[in-house]
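hi! just following up on the protien thing from before. the input was this:
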Amino acid sequence: MRGARERATIPARARARKASPTSTPRVRNVRGADWQGAAERVTGGSRRTAARPRCPAMPEDVVRREPEGDEASERTRVPLAGGLERLLAVEPEEHALRRLLGALAEVVPAIDSVALLVREADRLELVAAVGLDEGAPAAIAAGLAAEVADSGTLRTTGRPGSPFPPGTRHGAGAPLLACAAPGALLAGTRGEEPLDADALLLLRVAAERAARTIDRARFARAQEDARETLRRAEGDLENRRRTVDFILGVVGHDLRNPLGAIHMSAALLHRKGALEGWQARAIERMRSSAGRMGRIIQDLLSYTRTRLGNGIPINPCPASFDAIARKVVDELRAVNSDRAIEIAVHGDPAGEWDPDRLEQVASNLVSNAIDHGDPAVPVRVEVDGDDAERLLLHVRNGGPGIPAEVLSHLFEPFARGPDEKSRKASGLGLGLYISRQIVRGHGGEVEASSHDGETIVTVHLPRRCVARPTA
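and the predicted 3d structure came back as:
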């Protein structure tokens, strides 16, 4: 809209006048009572004003000529009610400014030209016009428009000058109130008489509608700019994430082989090195640390597969979840001898799944319950095979619970609870994310809830894996 100019030619109107050349018109200031009287003329003298917009009193420099006798011509009469209805019918939408200005010129026959100007820096730019010459300036810095925009009040003047065409005898301007950018709506007439109070009222209504249209257009552009900025930021973020994921995958893959050699060497020394005392303990710590590092690298590789769109390979075969769960519980009991881990299995635990991947899921969920649960409360693992179509795995632990703001993104990558520094935590925060990806790879889902001092993670698995084997 900025700098855009819209022009139209007003159809020729009758210029006949009956004013006596010898009569001397009386001129007086227009006050609020005169505005009220103008509205009453179109309602048959009724003082009810609910159907018309309320307008404040006009400023001191707005003048109105009182015609004497039959001096008023058809050109100077303004059908106020119809004019208001016509202006209010112009919706504040795109390309509405020209229609609004054209409507004002049509409902006020005395108006020969209309111009809408909006301030940009130190000048007022013409954004829409009706009845101006082709050579009218695109921007002005002074004159009636600047006075109206700076003062915020309605003004009238004789010989208004630019941007009106030559021959314009009287001009009036209404400010764009409540608009983000100051501006003015100007109307000019070639008639001998200035615009009367009814015409000025319609000018102010048109200015208010123009301000709404301009603000709506500005807000729409700002909203679209914000959306575009957000789209670009999201695109950049996704590109960076994919780059980081790719680097993690390369690093994890390259570290796996040398770390495997360290782990095997430590295991060999532990079994056949005939080491005792501090040497045996050092080798055992080395072997345990290498194993933990190996699990972290495996998590990184699984994460990068899902982030790069390859997914975690799932190779289903007949399996029993009873055996999977008991193996995981036995291993974790050995590592966490100070913690109570209970397991209960009921119903049919058989299905067609990838047992290695589901063992990884169960190990992640139970380890997480051990790390973040209350040590005084046993961790309970329940395998529910009562449903013929699906199997449920529940992992329960006691404790203060998980806040709602943490629970909502618990299964996101690198997610950590608010107590990560105060409790034992291992790994990178990828265990729950990888577990969810594995479960979804089987066609199932995993969810968590926390209330009444207990946190429950539930895995829903179909009896038969819907995923195809992946090489």
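Residues 1-76 have pLDDT under 50 and may be disordered.
The longest helix spans residues 197-272.
cheers
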